Amino acid sequence: MENYNQTSTDFILLGLFPSSRFGKFLFILIFLIFLIALFGNLFMILLIFMDTLLHTPMYFLLSQLSFIDLNYISTIVPKMAYNFLFEDKSISFIGCGIQSFFFLTLGGAETLLLMFMAYDRYVAICFPLHYLIKISRKVCMLMIIGSRIMGSIHSCAHTTYAFCIPYCKSRAINHFFCDVPAMLTLACMDTWIYEYTVFMSTIFFLLLPFIGIACSYGRVLFAVYHMHSTRGRKKAYSTCSTHLTVVTFYYMPFAYTYLRPRSFCTPTEDKALAVFYTILTPMLNPVIYSLRNKEVIGALRRLIHRFCSAKLSTNILA
């Protein structure tokens, strides 16, 4: 290992799976989760695209969340699976940079998108008569483009710094992907200034959006409490609880990981927390939004009915 590190610019990802039966079981479990996330998010995107009743700002934003999650988990798991199956833990310098860039871009975009989705629900419930004016298609496009641009700028700054600093002999990253804080432990220089910028960017991309989401839903719950319609109250509670579940699963492990001082972090704990926001959340989002959403279930029934009707018509004509 030492000789390899001295003669190669590649990094080594120590990975998540131990070399044991438990490691194989964990790999199979995570690969199944990856497949559920892959097909679940594809299903949500196609369903929203094909059903005209779901062509609303809320579901347009939801389709974009599925698109981000689809790319997000695909940035991490395939490389992790390849390393485990072929017993090759190396990743090229450029490959590591690309993975880190997309991870940070998609992660930053998702945090902002979840905040915009909370704002969408706030306007829909608190200002229903002005909803189509305040949340027009143009506004939705600005939300999507803005979240991606901000995520890209954030990612460029961190990735550029991380791949311009000198690294010591060991290039073994104690993680299952190229996470910048894990890479900094290999640096040959003091990185306290950069760690401070990581802390500040975490506040901007995690803490402030989370406060915005909390404020939005605080106002929403206050408005829902004063609703006279029982049906409307149940629908609002269902929508809000669904979104809050997604937000909690995504924000809490992310914030806990990046807001702690590095001296309190351990590689094992960091990897366990990273599983939540890189693997579990992309899988849970389509499951939560589909199983707990009557409109999505209704759209699925209409799609199945259309498919069965088309197949029956084809059989009759044949």
From TrEMBL:
<feature type="transmembrane region" description="Helical">
    <location>
        <begin position="56"/>
        <end position="78"/>
    </location>
</feature>
<dbReference type="InterPro" id="IPR000725">
    <property type="entry name" value="Olfact_rcpt"/>
</dbReference>
<comment type="function">
    <text>Putative odorant or sperm cell receptor.</text>
</comment>
<keyword id="KW-0812">Transmembrane</keyword>
<comment type="similarity">
    <text>Belongs to the G-protein coupled receptor 1 family.</text>
</comment>
<keyword id="KW-0807">Transducer</keyword>
<keyword id="KW-0297">G-protein coupled receptor</keyword>
<dbReference type="Pfam" id="PF13853">
    <property type="entry name" value="7tm_4"/>
</dbReference>
<keyword id="KW-1133">Transmembrane helix</keyword>
<feature type="transmembrane region" description="Helical">
    <location>
        <begin position="200"/>
        <end position="224"/>
    </location>
</feature>
<feature type="domain" description="G-protein coupled receptors family 1 profile">
    <location>
        <begin position="40"/>
        <end position="289"/>
    </location>
</feature>
<keyword id="KW-0472">Membrane</keyword>
<dbReference type="GO" id="GO:0004930">
    <property type="term" value="F:G protein-coupled receptor activity"/>
</dbReference>
<protein>
    <recommendedName>
        <fullName>Olfactory receptor</fullName>
    </recommendedName>
</protein>
<feature type="transmembrane region" description="Helical">
    <location>
        <begin position="90"/>
        <end position="106"/>
    </location>
</feature>
<keyword id="KW-1003">Cell membrane</keyword>
<keyword id="KW-0675">Receptor</keyword>
<dbReference type="InterPro" id="IPR000276">
    <property type="entry name" value="GPCR_Rhodpsn"/>
</dbReference>
<feature type="transmembrane region" description="Helical">
    <location>
        <begin position="25"/>
        <end position="50"/>
    </location>
</feature>
<dbReference type="GO" id="GO:0004984">
    <property type="term" value="F:olfactory receptor activity"/>
</dbReference>
<dbReference type="GO" id="GO:0005886">
    <property type="term" value="C:plasma membrane"/>
</dbReference>
<keyword id="KW-0552">Olfaction</keyword>
<feature type="transmembrane region" description="Helical">
    <location>
        <begin position="272"/>
        <end position="291"/>
    </location>
</feature>
<feature type="transmembrane region" description="Helical">
    <location>
        <begin position="236"/>
        <end position="252"/>
    </location>
</feature>
<keyword id="KW-0716">Sensory transduction</keyword>
<dbReference type="InterPro" id="IPR017452">
    <property type="entry name" value="GPCR_Rhodpsn_7TM"/>
</dbReference>
